[in-house]
Design a protein that fits this description.
single chain; alpha/beta; Arc Repressor Mutant, subunit A; five-stranded parallel beta sheet; elongated
């Protein structure tokens, strides 16, 4: 089920059943993230984590039914990057994965040009805070520009409205309505999309949020992130 869920979100996934297979896969595949269950039949995921940490600094997210605070603290102190307690929703798991990958992945622009980003006919100049589409300048508000830059620098990465409020507005749903994000996405689409009703650049991922699609010939394609389950 987890493999199907993650593959549907664009991840390349390899599932393994035993500790020895996991160590071999990490060594050969060099994945960007490992999902590791604490209980592995007769094996202990915590012992496997210690072996993984000798081999690699790959981010590890524990999956477990042990929800006690002492268990979570022990797992994090052993080197896990996050600790997800069962039962969990698919949305929570993917959000946790994205959060860990953001923390552990070195920041880099998706498609560097002089002072900005280029995706086919769409050019974003961060120094002048100008956006050009098909040779014409697009008039964006300050927050529309900040939102577009944030999404475009992490192409194909899904962000929830809550995450966008946090990163673009430095706010949260406790202080600001998530509808603010929805409205700004709506305005952006009407300014940069060929057909705002069928967006190709800023797409909605139902139940999860939004992502920026670079996918036009001649642009830098987003690298699919392998995950090991």
């Amino acid at each position: 089920m987890l493999i199907q869920l993650l593959e549907a979100d664009g991840y390349e996934v390899e599932g393994v059943a035993h500790s020895s297979e996991a160590l071999a896969a990490v060594a050969s595949r060099e994945p960007n993230l490992v999902l590791l269950d604490v209980v592995l039949g007769e094996e202990d995921g915590r012992e496997l984590l210690l072996e993984l940490r000798v081999l690699s600094d790959v981010p590890v997210v524990f999956l477990t039914g042990r929800g006690l605070e002492t268990d979570r603290i022990a797992g994090l102190r052993m080197g896990a990057d996050d600790y997800v307690v069962k039962p969990f929703s698919p949305g929570e798991l993917t959000a946790r994965i994205e959060s860990v990958l953001r923390r552990c992945r070195p920041a880099r622009p998706a498609c560097p040009v002089a002072g900005g980003l280029r995706f086919g006919e769409l050019r974003i100049d961060r120094r002048s805070r100008e956006v050009e589409c098909s040779g014409r300048l697009i008039d964006l508000t300050a927050k529309e520009f900040d939102l577009l830059v944030f999404l475009a620098t992490s192409p194909r990465q899904v962000f929830s409205r809550q995450q966008l409020l946090e990163h673009v507005w430095s706010s949260s749903p406790d202080w600001q309505d998530e509808g603010t994000v929805t409205e700004h996405i709506y305005r952006l689409r009407h300014k940069i999309e060929v057909d705002a009703d069928r967006p190709q650049r800023i797409v909605t991922i139902r139940g999860a949020g939004y992502r920026f699609e670079p996918g036009i010939a001649g642009t830098v394609e987003a690298k699919r992130v392998p995950a090991l389950v």
